[in-house]
Amino acid sequence: MSQQTFEDLLKLEPFNPEYVAREPFGLLGSRCSDCGYVTFPQRAFCPRCRKPEAEMEVVRLSPYGRLHTFTVIRQAPPGTPVPYALAQVDLDDGCRVMAQCATESPDELAINDRVEVMPAEFRSRGNEAVLGYKFRLISEEIA
Ligand SMILES: [Zn+2]
Would you say the C-alpha torsion 111, 95, 10, 2 has a positive or negative sign? Predict the structure, then answer.
């Protein structure tokens, strides 16, 4: 696993600039101008109200959420450290995001745990390091 600092990671190009913002770091989604529904990733039309006149505005998503569910991956291709947790997180502004959840002991995760998004190194198809995201556990009091 990479030991890059937060600042090192933010020097990487986002794997997709429609998903990840660098300065400041955060996830990007879209919000419906009509019903307020928030999506990740961005959508061109609202999947909830489906009104053709509704605009989908690009928004920064809340960095905080709760584990909706997760699974612990124990077998992976060579070069991928295991075990790791793959989680679905319900962000505070209402949309669901799937990503790894950083933890030393994935078996201690629990549904509804409080988490925060953080930068992570992804690998491009050409095996180049690019900026992605994962979650980490935080205490209930932080946010
Ligand atoms: Zn809508």
Answer: positive
d(CA 85, CA 2): 16
Q: Are 122 and 94 in contact (CB under 8 A)?
A: no
Cβ–Cβ contacts within 10 Å for residue 112, how many?
9
Cα of 97 vs centre of ligand 1, distance in Å, is 19
**Cα of 31 from ligand 1 centre, angstroms:** 8
Q: pLDDT of 73-101, one tens digit each? A: 999 988 888 999 999 999 999 999 999 99
CATH classification of 6-137, choosing from 2.40.50.840, 1.25.40.20, 3.10.180.10, 2.170.150.40? 2.40.50.840
Q: Where are the domains of the chain?
A: 6-137
- pTM, rounded to two decimals: 0.89
Ligand 1 centre from 47 Cα, in Å?
7
Per-residue pLDDT of 43-79, as tens digits, reads: 999 999 999 999 999 999 999 999 999 999 999 988 8
